[in-house]
Amino acid sequence: AWIEAQLQASTAQYVFVGGHYSLYSVCDHGSSSNLIDNLKPLLQQYGAHYLSGHDHCMETLYEEGVYYFVSGMGDTCCYEASKMDEVPVDSLLWHVSKETKTRGTIGGFTSITATPEAATVI
User: Is 108 exposed, middle or buried (0-12, 13-18, 19+ CB in 10 A)?
Assistant: First the structure.
């Protein structure tokens, strides 16, 4: 498959894969079984991390060496965290949802900084 060829050929120090749909999400749209079945093994095999949107929340999850970032608050904050039981136990590091947002929060974004020493996603 195309994505596997790209991951296999990469010599990058940090590899981020971007997609619209979340692989894992605790918010209303939830996780994608198709991505879990087909993309997750490739992320693990090639040491890549996944950035997505779709759910109007902010989330960071970590499982088996892979970070999953959901940055879906660009326009609207926030959906409910109604799928908390549909992600792997202890994988959710933090999230912003309808229940946790600070008053007046209407949107948000994700920023990546990469240097030879480290990559930071905020």
Answer: middle
CA distance 2 to 8: 10
Backbone angles phi, psi at 32, to 5 degrees: -110, 110
- Do residues 63 and 93 lie in contact, with contact meaning Cβ atoms separated by under 8 Å? no
pLDDT value, residue 46: 97
- 49's enclosing H/E stretch is strand 49-52
Between 114 and 100, the higher pLDDT residue: 114
Q: pTM value?
A: 0.92
C-alpha gyration radius of the chain? 14
Buried b / exposed e along 73-103 (16+ C-beta atoms within 10 A): beeebbbebebeeebeeebbeebbbbeebee
